[in-house]
Amino acid sequence: MTLAYSSSSFGAAPAVKTDRLNTAYLPALDLHLVNSSADQAVAKLLSPGRRRAFFMNAHCCNIRRRDPRYAEAVAGADILLPDGIGVELAAKFTGHSLSANLNGTDFVPQLLQRAASMGKSVYLFGGRPGVADAAAARLVYDIPGLRIVGTRDGYQGARDTQAVIADINESGADVVLVALGVPMQELWLHRHADDLKADLTLGVGALFDFLSGSVARAPEPVRAARMEWVWRLAMEPRRMARRYLTGNVSFLAHAGLAALRRKRLADAQQRALDITVALSALLLLSPLLLLAALAVRADSKGAAIFKQARVGLNGKTFTMYKFRSMTAAAETRRAEILNVSDRDGICFKSRQDPRITRVGRWLRRTSIDELPQLFNVLRGDMSIVGPRPALPCEVADYPPRALGRLQVKPGITGVWQVSGRASVGFKEMIEMDLSYIQARSFKLNLQLILRTFRAVISGRGAY
């Protein structure tokens, strides 16, 4: 049955300049979730085009693991919105940080506020008899200009599926909210996606219960503390105990194990890449290595290989190898020239460093001085790709955020190295390294290795 609800005037919603929507792949959940603000998500959902959106919380993820039909419905959705602290914690297991918690009870009214300002109409389907009507009345009261063109309950009113679809389509609704509960609402929307004419369809869970007042929401301080699930458990202990106690523990355990398995796989892939590239490079470049060593010895006194303590994975120090590009007493003179660094921040780098030898300047310009670090890679101290290894004295002065670059093995090449090397400031270098750590993958490492050749040829920032 189509009923019309509307309020007398249209209110202006805040303008949103863009409908661009970022998503993040969360390996621990094997899901692509929205990683944008609520305003950006609203703008995208209401932009031209047809789309289906679901909210994903810990309970949804548990059902998805057990129910292949629901997993198929989730895979068919156009947009998945992160809902709840459980998903947020799962994201952090793999170093991700989501922009916003887009729980349906807060997000949908914000979306409808914007829909009202655009003149879009809404249909409510689901809930016990009378609940959708009460929710509609509350929404119209709260949101000036909102047009609700129909309601239908999820019990007797849902028995004739074709009648439901016909009622929704005849209402001309632009937005359809379906509150049949997880997983029924997602399965229903997935099954009838081609039959519904509305531009936007959403599964909204218990939203109608909250809006109608049949289920009380947690007080604001409880919601602000991200503990609304505790409130719901206290209100409905029998119904919610399994979902929130057993379910949350199961969800976090599976997400944690998935993150651990992915880390082990990523580490194994990176180690295989390291060994393959390092051994191949040493075999192919052995004549060049020999010539470089002879040139260093001929140009100045001292050993051809320079050894220096550097900080690696988890702050552990190791001995790093390089072709010596400075005079033999260079380390004792470092304090004298710290004030002539060309780089802002902690890491010292000077284009006019007087300690650099003639051959050393050429070695640095071509990056040949770094090649002995291939032995560090074989030993497991370093990787081919990663943040550059810092000196202990530099790490001692690191701000807390910079310590994050010690989460992975240091590398011979990386984002910083292919983006300008010494011409990149310290703060910018840190952000590059942290972004790499969050996004690193076998494919990304291969891309950075290939880009290294172009960086070496250009010589930008190499001195």
Task: Give an overview of the whole structure.
With 463 residues, the chain is an alpha/beta fold. It has two domains: 5-235, Rossmann fold; 264-458, no CATH class. Helices cover 46% and strands 13% of the residues. It is built from 17 helices and 13 strands. The protein has helices at residues 38-45, 58-66, 68-76, 85-93, 104-117, 131-142, 161-171, 184-191, 207-212, 220-224, 228-235, 237-299, 358-366, 373-379, 392-396, 426-439, 442-458, and strands at 5-6, 23-26, 31-34, 51-56, 79-82, 121-126, 147-152, 175-179, 200-203, 305-311, 317-323, 383-385, 411-413. Strands 1-7-6-8-9-4-5 form a seven-stranded mixed beta sheet, sandwiched between helices. The chain has a two-stranded antiparallel ribbon with strand order 2-3. Strands 10-11 form a two-stranded antiparallel ribbon. Helix 6 links the parallel strand 6 (121-126) and strand 7. Helix 1 packs across helix 5, helix 2 (58-66) packs across helix 12 (237-299) and helix 12 (237-299) packs antiparallel against helix 13. The longest helix has 63 residues, at 237-299. It is elongated, with a radius of gyration of 30 Å. The termini are far apart.
Helicity, as a percent range = 40-55%
- CATH-defined fold name of the largest domain: Rossmann fold
What is the strand arrangement across the widest sheet? 1-7-6-8-9-4-5
CATH superfamily of the largest domain: AF0625-like
CATH class group of the largest domain: Alpha Beta
Q: List the helices and strands in order.
A: EEEHEHHEHHEHEHEHEHHHHEEHHEHEHH
- How many structural domains can be distinguished in the coordinates? 2
Largest sheet: 7 strands, mixed
Q: How many whole angstroms does the radius of gyration measure?
A: 30 Å
Tell me the total number of β-strands.
Answer: 13
- Work out the strand percent: 5-15%
